[in-house]
Write a structure and sequence with these properties.
The complex is a heterodimer of chains A (402) and B (239).
Chain A (H helix, E strand, L loop, with lengths): L1 H13 L2 H38 L4 E6 L5 H6 L6 H9 L3 E16 L2 E10 L4 H8 L3 E4 L8 E4 L3 H5 L8 E4 L2 E9 L11 E4 H8 L7 E6 L5 H18 L8 E5 H44 L1 H9 L4 H40 L11 H28 L2 H6 L2
Helix pairs in contact in A: 1-11, 2-9, 2-11, 2-12, 4-8, 9-10, 9-11, 9-12, 11-12
Chain B lengths: L3 E14 L2 E14 L3 E5 L6 H8 L7 E6 L2 E2 L5 H11 E4 L11 H10 L5 H14 L15 H12 L6 E5 L7 H17 L3 E5 L3 H4 L4 E6 L2 E7 L6 H4 L1
Parallel strand pairs in B: 3-8, 3-9, 6-7, 7-8
Antiparallel strand pairs in B: 1-2, 1-4, 4-5, 9-10
Helix pairs in contact in B: 3-4, 3-5, 4-5, 5-6
Classes of the chains: A alpha+beta (402), B alpha/beta (239).
């Protein structure tokens, strides 16, 4: 029976090709939006999670400012003091403390002068970056502590100073540095454009001897990350109490596990919101189907009368129109899913060619099934009221309709 | 004793047009026997088409009872009525009323779909019927590619699809020239004589009417005369 309905429906859709395709297009756009946005969103989430996974589970980050407005406090130049760093070192379970400082600085290379993002880290602790942050070399060697040596992100020779090679010289604040190593991509454009020097030298050339932008701490064997984070928090609060009267700046202590959790849930919320908005696209498409189906019922009143005269029951008529609107929904779903995957893959390909944004399209079977199922369902729901109206027509009235 | 197939008892059809009541049928009673050939005649607006729709179960009367083989149709649900239309009644309309996006074969197969007949059987039966009305070579043509006479022959084949007992025709030759109309009537009379179908035809054409067993004349929603002509000759004999 369904097979026959299907044949009749396809025939009647083909007698009004323009209207049928326009209605299908409405669904295609909605499904395409959902599939491409959700695939890309899922891909971005996977990429970020991968970056976070590079960070070892045993790392604790201490940052100035509240966790809730991390970005404003970092941009506002809040810092941890030297006293804070000492307090962190004293906390029970802390192994190595690695402070990081950064600022924008002019660098000269090959006759070109550019403002670069310069950071200072203690090169003697560079193993922490290797083991806990996931740094590895693309070219050259690791820089040595106390030497005028540079380690650069992989985008520096590609975009900042095109053609930069290792074992060549650059100048920062009148001091000459040798480029010794190029890092493999860390997964974000910003990170991969940075230039690093030894912390001691950084302090000398910039005059910044006080504090740090943030501090990383590793944990001694046998200690639990959450416990050590708690110890650091207590120590920092103690030092702040001693300095009564002075403005005690806030701080945040987080473990890498926690960051992963926070980012995961933030991404989840964003994805959910995007998903909800894209769903509205399909619903708008559904309203398009309903409109088309009402017009169709109106136009085919006489046809409905004929079908009833030759023995079609109300249920037959309802099914016929439901199948028709379902087909519109399903074709739209197939088209939209295909187009969505295609666009997501094109963006991914583009992203890999030009590392402007590391984007990955993660097309899950769930999203494909959802795209197809939801559009078919919307088609059926949108067709239900028109179909019922068609089935309720009295045969003689429908036949008399001109 | 002839078996009564259709029995109408005091049928009223009243339309409410604003505050005015429009009485189309005013207490019509009629019996149609199995194998009968009834011609309904009368001026426009006399209610003959409405009466035909009531007989064909396409319309329900405002008052009165319609019995088909002793079963009261007015007591049936819409779907049960649909089933009766599909199984026992074949319709032929003045406007042919074919589905334009389907070809001749598909149009004839359509009534069988609703009876749940398999595709192979449907196709076989539809081909057979189209051949019997002389359209065996045009089964893949769409109605728009065929003449009026050919379209009406498809409609006849469609009406016969489920092998109904009654053929109900509303001015079947009304849209055709006299020569084509005659051919259509030949087919209908053949159905009556050789296939023993019961025929109820609404017509303006006295020649068509002259071949009926019963001539029912209507005026203003009432039957003014109903006489058995006693005739039992064929169209061909008359020519």
């Amino acid at each position: 029976m369904i097979k026959e309905y299907f044949k009749i429906s396809v025939k009647s859709l083909r007698t009004r090709p323009v209207r049928s395709w326009l209605t299908i297009l409405g669904i295609v756009i909605g499904v395409f939006l959902i599939v491409s946005i959700v695939s890309l969103g899922e891909g971005i989430k996977t990429t970020i999670m991968k970056q976070l996974k590079m960070m070892g589970g045993d790392l604790i980050m201490v940052m100035p400012g509240e966790m809730s407005n991390m970005i404003t406090s970092m941009a506002g130049g809040l810092k941890l003091s030297n006293e804070d760093i000492k307090a962190i070192e004293k906390a029970d379970g802390v192994d190595v403390v690695v402070p990081t400082k950064y600022m924008a600085e002019t660098m000269k290379y090959g006759g070109e002068k550019k403002l670069v993002f310069l950071y200072g880290i203690p090169f003697k602790n560079i193993d922490v970056f290797q083991s806990q942050v996931g740094w590895s070399l693309q070219e050259g060697r690791w820089p040595l502590p106390g030497k005028n040596e540079l380690i650069v992100g992989n985008l520096v020779p590609e975009e900042v100073f095109p053609g930069m090679r290792i074992e060549t010289m650059a100048t920062i604040s009148g001091r000459d540095f040798k480029v010794v190593g190029i890092l493999k991509s860390l997964g974000s454009k910003q990170d991969d454009q940075q230039i690093g020097i030894d912390l001691e030298i950084y302090e000398k050339i910039t005059g910044e001897r006080e504090g740090a932008a943030f501090v990383m701490a590793t944990i001694k064997n046998g200690y639990n990350a959450d416990q050590v984070a708690e110890n650091i928090k207590n120590k920092l609060e103690e030092t702040r109490k001693k300095r009564k009267g002075e403005d005690a700046s806030p701080f945040s202590v987080i473990t890498s596990e926690k960051i992963t959790g926070i980012v995961g849930s933030v991404m989840g919320i964003i994805q959910l919101a995007v998903f909800a908005f894209a769903s509205i696209g399909i619903i708008v498409g559904g309203i398009g189907i309903m409109n088309t189906m009402y017009t169709s019922v109106h136009e085919r009143t006489r046809e409905i009368g004929i079908l009833k005269a030759i023995g079609a029951t109300n249920r037959n008529i309802t099914s016929l129109f439901l199948v028709e609107s379902g087909i519109i929904g399903l074709i739209g779903g197939v088209g939209g899913t295909g187009l969505g995957i295609l666009i997501a893959k094109i963006l991914e390909y583009y992203g890999q060619l030009h590392p402007l944004f590391y984007i990955e399209a993660s097309v899950s079977p769930f999203i494909i099934l959802f795209g197809l199922g939801f559009s078919f369902l919307v088609g059926c729901i949108a067709g239900f009221l028109p179909a019922r109206q068609a089935s309720k027509l009295k045969p003689v009235d429908a036949l008399r309709y001109e | 004793m002839e078996k009564t197939l259709i029995k109408l008892e005091n049928i009223w059809k009243v339309y409410q047009l604003g505050k005015v009541e429009l009485e189309i049928l005013k207490g019509v009673s009629l019996q149609v026997s199995l194998g009968d050939f009834v011609a309904l005649m009368g001026p426009s607006g006399s209610g003959k088409s409405t009466l035909l729709h009531v007989i064909g179960c396409l319309d329900t009367p405002s008052r009165g009872n319609v019995f088909l083989e002793g079963q009261d149709l007015s007591k049936l649900s819409e779907d049960e009525q649909a089933l009766i239309r599909g199984k026992k009644i074949g319709f032929i309309f003045q406007q042919f009323n074919l589905l334009h996006n389907l070809n001749a074969l598909e149009n004839v197969m359509l009534p069988m779909i609703f009876q749940g007949i398999s595709e192979v059987q449907r196709k076989e039966k539809a081909k057979e019927l189209l051949e019997s009305v002389g359209l065996g070579d045009r089964i893949m043509h769409k109605p728009s590619e065929l003449s009026g006479g050919e379209q009406q022959r498809i409609a006849i084949a469609r009406a016969l699809a489920n092998n109904p007992e009654i053929i109900v025709a509303d001015e079947p030759t009304g849209n055709l020239d006299s020569k084509t109309g005659k051919k259509i009537m030949e087919i209908l009379i053949d159905l009556h004589q050789n296939k023993k179908k019961t025929l109820v035809i609404v017509t303006h054409d006295p020649t068509v009417a002259s071949y009926a067993h019963s001539l029912v004349n209507m005026k203003d929603g009432q039957i003014v005369s109903n006489h058995n002509t006693g005739k039992e000759y064929t169209w061909k004999e008359n020519v």
